[in-house]
Amino acid sequence: MTVDDCYQIGHVIKTHGLKGDVQLFLDVDNPLEYQNLESVLVQQNSALIPFFIEHIQINSSKAIAKFEEIDDVEEAKALVASPIFLPLNNLPDLADDEYYLHQLVGMDLYDKGKLIGQVKELFEIGPQELISVIHQGKEVLIPLKDEIILKVDIETNRIDADIPDGLIDIYLEEDED
Q: Which residues are bridge partners to 138 per DSSP?
């Protein structure tokens, strides 16, 4: 299984206590939905290593977890800062008009019917989520807001938007230095 077959749910923040427990940051909409996790995939170097969970206690976006076979603080230290993943097939099915953010990567973005480019990445900067698109050789960041992103069609790989006038032009202007 590769990272492309998975979605990231968070990362290991630090060790907790002396018996191998770790503190996790859960970067998900509803952390309590993960209270009954049996296992996770922890990225170490470029490999995804499965870890079975002995117990997990979730409090807001943080959790204390104990992985099987991690029995002391030194073993737990090796996991600090490691991203945590679950397979994509763990995601619940959505209604036809709903989508997961990771599904936007690779889709074609259109503004008022004109192709702007393909979505390369998504960024979360503070409370703002942004779509990164390469347009005329330059990166353009478009806010992921309902008033801008009008329709996402997973079947046709198309995003229809109403980008505010002048936003794309800001990115296309030559540097005057």
A: 135
> Residue 14 carries which side chain, given as an amino acid letter?
K
Per-residue pLDDT reduced to its tens digit, 99-133: 888 889 999 999 999 999 999 999 888 889 999 99
Token couple for 166 = 């002048």
Q: Please tell me the pTM assigned to this model.
A: 0.69
Q: At 149, which CATH number?
A: 2.30.30.240
Instruction: Look at residues 31, 66, 89 and tell me which one is the last residue of a structural domain.
Output: 89
Indicate the burial class of 103 (C-beta count within 10 angstroms; 0-12, 13-18, 19 or more). middle
Angle at 23 between CA 19 and CA 25, to 5 degrees: 165
Task: Please report, as a single letter, which amino acid is at residue 27.
Answer: D
